[in-house]
Amino acid sequence: MHMPENKGGDFTPCPDGNHVAVCIRVLDLGTQKYDYQGQSKIARKVLITWEIPDELMDDSRPFTINKKYTFSSHEKSAMRKDLEAWRGVPFKDSDFGAGGFDIRNLLGKGCMLNVVHNPKDGTIYANIASIARLPKGLTAPLPHNPTIYFSLDTPDWAVYEALSDGLKKSISESPEYHQARAVNEDRGPSSPDDYGVGANELDDLVPF
């Protein structure tokens, strides 16, 4: 009896190419362990999810794609580079720290995503190669999926419980999760004002 061909799973990756996309989810994963160039490291991670409105799956729902970032404002960090490419304007030092840019502002904002396909172990994975600001005059449609935000600094546990088991497990392994559970177990959903949403008027030409 011969081993079957490695055809991977039945997962259909997001189509490759350039797509209009809209951010639908920003999740604070807390401090995570990961391997980098053969070394074990730890860093706080954030997961951002985009919806691709013009590319539909078999069930007529739009494709989605994620990218995990180290939560860093360093000029060489992938997160800062992608956010600056997305907004089309470099950040200033005053944009960071207390009272600075809030990543919740990414929700509902459109961009251009360049998606590439990478084969691994018989499966094709879709990855984000680059992010860019929407061309002038192009507006991203409203998302089909609800927008979701979760921060371990001010956790909404109802949002946490609605996440997938895999995401909950990953978040629950972070020290920030255990600290938040100990301090905020009885706290209800937070007001959007807690995150500073709408606190600053932004230039109409800058998406966030």
Provide an overview of this structure.
- The protein has helices at residues 78-87, 157-161, 165-172, 175-184; strands at residues 17-36, 39-56, 62-70, 110-120, 123-132, 148-150.
- Helix content is 16%, strand content 34%.
- Residues 188-204 have low confidence and may be disordered.
- It has one domain.
- A hairpin with a 5-residue loop joins strand 2 and strand 3 (62-70).
- The longest helix has 10 residues, at 78-87.
- It contains four helices and six strands, in the order βββαβββααα.
- Strands 1, 2, 3, 4, 5 and 6 form a six-stranded mixed sheet that branches.
- With 208 residues, the chain is of the alpha+beta class.
Work out the helicity level. 10-25%
- Tally of strands: 6
* Head-to-tail CA distance between termini: 58 Å
Strand content: 25-35%
What's the overall geometry? Answer: globular
Helix- and strand-based class? alpha+beta
Averaged pLDDT: 87
Residue runs with pLDDT of under 50 for 5 or more positions: 188-204
What's the number of structural domains?
Answer: 1
Distinct helical segment count: 4
Query: Biggest β-sheet, characterized?
Result: 6 strands, mixed
Give a brief outline of the structure.
This protein is of the alpha+beta class. It is built from 4 helices and 6 strands, in the order E-E-E-H-E-E-E-H-H-H. 16% of the residues lie in helices and 34% in strands.
Task: Describe the structure using short key phrases.
single chain, 208 residues, alpha+beta, 4 helices, globular
SSE layout and pairing:
Elements: E1 17-36, E2 39-56, E3 62-70, H1 78-87, E4 110-120, E5 123-132, E6 148-150, H2 157-161, H3 165-172, H4 175-184
